[in-house]
Amino acid sequence: MLESLIKSKDELVTVSEDASIEDALRIFETTSFRAIPILDTTGTLFRGVIYKMHIYQAQSQQRDLTLPVTSIMRNMTKFIQIDATFFETFFSLQDLPFISVIDENHNFIGILTHSAMMNMLASSWQTEQGRYTLTLLTDGERGSLERAAKYVSRYSTISSAVSLNPDQNALTQRIIFTLPRQVDEDILSKIIKLLSRKGFRLESIEDLNKQSYLS
């Protein structure tokens, strides 16, 4: 699933492990990159990542910029295998601008960017094809998601469903449904009334016709 999101090595700017900090700085000064992958001298194996901010720190500390980029290299162990699962990828990537992708021989394949992952998640929530999103507070009982989905489905198909528990409290667990464009205000009203009768409290409604979240 994630392979389609990977930006391949051929599309990227990389630096060799024997390049100097000064060499990397010249690249950063002519691009908008925050970080660049470092490969071995053959251009095959992943070594780490160099960040623009660490070069600026080296400059402010008056360090020798002719030193190799490996002297301020980071993220040497921050990579995923090409067959990584969704959650492996998501939690590895969450604090990084990108994560490097390697094969079983440690050969560098490319990168998966934070923005690509976020765009995929946004797309999966069907905000571009949906009309309304409903955020419900549940009673925390087992099967709440299934019951709420059953009630919504009496009047409409469901484009996407997400269960969230930001407070780690079963009594404040949220369910977010995205409803398709065919849903009008009359159908929406019927869904809301039924959910209310069945014990689900509506926290918010959003009309996606009035807001786009995907560029």
Automatic annotation (TrEMBL):
Keyword Cell wall biogenesis/degradation assigned to the entry: answer is no
What keywords appear on the UniProt entry?
A: CBS domain
Question: Domain CBS: where?
Answer: 7-65
Cited NCBIfam families? CBS_CbpA
Q: What is this protein called?
A: CBS domain-containing protein
**Which source organism does the UniProt entry give?**
Weissella coleopterorum
Lineage summary = Bacteria, Bacillati, Bacillota, Bacilli, Lactobacillales
